[in-house]
Design goal:
The structure is a single chain. This protein has 225 residues and is an alpha/beta fold. It has helices at 17-28, 47-58, 66-90, 101-111, 117-128, 143-152, 165-181, 195-224; strands at 5-11, 37-41, 94-98, 135-140, 186-190. The protein has a single domain, classed as Rossmann fold (3-Layer(aba) Sandwich). It contains eight helices and five strands; from the N terminus they run βαβααβααβααβα. The chain has a five-stranded parallel sheet with strand order 2-3-1-4-5, sandwiched between helices.
Length: 225
């Protein structure tokens, strides 16, 4: 068992994920274990990963074909796992990631149809080994509600956000698929709730998971003595 705790935030466009990650980070700044937290985003999180992120989200002159898109995501993920996530977990830290392989299953697997969701999952496992989040917050929002929210936004959209409605419906289907397949780690949140309600739910669920993890580690220590 890893000494650390791996938390991920997932969800489709306009679900409020970025806002909740920001609020959770502010919450962590006052947490008694604040020095143990490591925040990162996908794609990105390393110098190489951030360059890949630029290519994936804003490269319009020669946008990557679907299979190239998938490989770029995997390349960024392999880099951040080797350089950041695995070392941090081995040191007993709490890693908080804005997206991980669930996004690839939803976007490149289900929505793009590059390969089956199972194929995407197996490909990730063959590259990453047994690195799986301990807890995933899935902010679930229907494509209809997401579209209504985006119409009210003033900022521009990246290449993924500009996809057509059916694409985002498939993204939701992809998230629902992996949430059912690995339900033990998923905490599904109704993203229609207020920002404050969602934040409180995330804090409470995280603290419960932290207590559970601490108890497991204590039991392992006793067993090994």
């Amino acid at each position: 068992m890893n000494k650390g705790l791996f938390i991920t935030f997932e969800g489709g466009d306009a679900c409020g994920k970025s806002t909740q990650v920001k609020l959770f980070r502010e919450y962590v700044e006052k947490h008694p274990m604040k020095d143990k937290f490591v925040f990162l985003r996908e794609p990105g999180g390393t110098e190489l990963g951030e360059e890949i992120r630029k290519l994936l989200l804003s490269y319009n002159l020669d946008a990557p074909v679907p299979k190239a898109e998938l490989m770029l995501f995997l390349a960024s993920r392999a880099q951040i796992c080797e350089k950041v996530i695995i070392p941090a977990l081995n040191e007993g830290k709490i890693v908080v990631a804005d997206r991980f392989y669930d996004s690839t299953i939803a976007y490149q697997g289900m929505a793009r149809g590059i390969m089956s969701p199972e194929g995407i999952l197996n490909l990730n496992r063959s590259i990453l080994g047994n690195i799986t989040p301990d807890l995933t917050f899935y902010l679930k929002l229907s494509p209809e509600d997401a579209r209504a929210r985006k119409l009210k936004m003033s900022e521009g959209f990246d290449r993924m956000e500009m996809e057509e409605f059916t694409f985002h419906q498939k993204v939701c289907d992809g998230y629902d698929y992996i949430a059912k397949l690995e339900s033990e780690r998923f905490h599904i949140i109704d993203a229609r709730k207020s920002i404050e309600e969602i934040h409180e739910e995330i804090k409470q669920t995280f603290e419960e998971k932290l207590i559970e993890k601490t108890s497991q580690l204590s039991s392992d220590d006793i067993t090994q003595q």
